[in-house]
Design goal:
Strand order of the largest sheet: 3-6-9-1-10
CATH superfamily: P-loop containing nucleotide triphosphate hydrolases
Structural class: alpha/beta
Shape: globular
CATH class: Alpha Beta
CATH topology: Rossmann fold
Number of domains: 1
Radius of gyration: 21 Å
Distance between the termini: 11 Å
Number of strands: 13
Order of helices and strands: HHEHEEHEEEHHEEEHEHEHHEHHEH
Helix content: 40-55%
């Protein structure tokens, strides 16, 4: 039995009201473009202020790229878009050293990954070799080329989009790559009322063009520092670890959640609490994030394969696991 949650000293509204106001401004700004999807927008913001990377997976045309672009435009930060194709090379992503004949020296030319917000559009349409060019950048916020390490700007977030792997011309992301994304989310089709509003919004112009920055890079970094100060009770940590252990012990899974996944859920829960104007986490923060944080990290055994897509199978297994783990009171 898990012990009862203990009160956390100083529970209440978060210190800085301007932090809360900044998050609300960012949410409202992105929602002027992404209609009727407040949860998707909120999870994108959670990923940003938690210092993670976001994978948006869905069928074509539902707004995956638009969500990434709206988030980038709402931030007063540098932005680069990389369109991943089958002929893209690693040097097209991270950069390369170019020989200058007049000086007889090599000059470093940074690639588009050197930006605060990087949109890796249709990341699973390029080869695994090029996909792997992002591994060091996403994990360590740096790029090493020819023995020289180049730090990336701060803050740094990769927002990648991908179509379901069943679509033609796609390469499944390896587990090592998937594990570096803090969250994976799906946007889904809008309801008809929201879709009607989307048509009206774009009747004369694209609302994305009217989006102006509402948060600076310094404010993003301040929010990221605030996230680490959000309190997480020991009972919640035990709850989180019980879910992790269940994924590693489940006979339905060939691959459980990694320690990086545990840390991602811990940090994302802190960030979610911050967006909800709390200085402490509650069980609902964990429950709300288990699927978007863990589903892309686990691998369902072929013995339990069904007609569902791999991502849907993983989500179904996680929901079953959640029913078996006691929630702290």
């Amino acid at each position: 039995m898990m012990r009862r949650l203990q009160p956390v000293d100083g529970q209440g509204p978060l210190v800085a009201s301007d932090a809360v106001d900044g998050i609300d401004r960012l949410q409202r700004a992105v929602e002027t473009v992404i209609r009727g999807k407040p949860e998707a927008v909120r999870l994108a913001i959670v990923t940003l202020i938690a210092g993670g990377h976001l994978l948006v997976e869905d069928v074509p045309g539902v707004g995956k790229t638009t969500l990434a672009q709206a988030l980038a435009r709402a931030l007063d930060c540098s932005f680069q878009r990389i369109q991943f194709t089958s002929d893209l090379l690693p040097s097209d992503v991270i950069g390369l050293s170019v020989y200058k004949q007049h000086s007889g020296l090599f000059e470093w030319k940074p690639g588009p990954v050197f930006a605060n917000v990087v949109l890796a559009d249709e990341i699973n349409r390029t080869t695994p070799k090029t996909q792997s060019a992002l591994l060091e950048a996403m994990a360590e916020r740096q790029v090493t080329v020819e023995g020289v390490t180049h730090p990336l700007p701060a803050p740094f977030i990769v927002v990648a989009t991908q179509n379901p792997i069943e679509h033609h011309g796609t390469y499944p992301l390896p587990e090592s790559q998937l594990d570096r994304f803090m969250l994976r989310l799906r946007i889904g089709y809008p309801d008809l009322r929201d879709e009607k509003q989307i048509l009206r919004d774009r009747e004369r112009a694209d609302p994305l063009n009217d989006l102006v920055p509402v948060m600076s890079a310094e404010e993003v970094m301040e929010l990221q520092r605030s996230v680490s100060a959000v309190a997480v009770d020991d009972a919640l940590v035990e709850y989180l670890m019980s879910i992790v252990a269940a994924t590693r012990d489940s006979e339905m899974l060939d691959l459980g959640v990694s320690p990086r996944g545990s840390l991602s859920l811990f940090r994302a829960a802190q960030a979610l609490a911050l967006t909800e104007e709390r200085s402490y986490c509650i069980p609902d923060d964990i429950k709300r994030l288990v699927v978007p944080v863990f589903a892309h990290r686990i691998l369902v055994s072929s013995r339990f394969a069904s007609a569902l897509r791999r991502s849907e199978e993983a989500e179904a297994v996680l929901r079953e696991i959640m029913k078996t783990v006691s929630v702290p009171l």
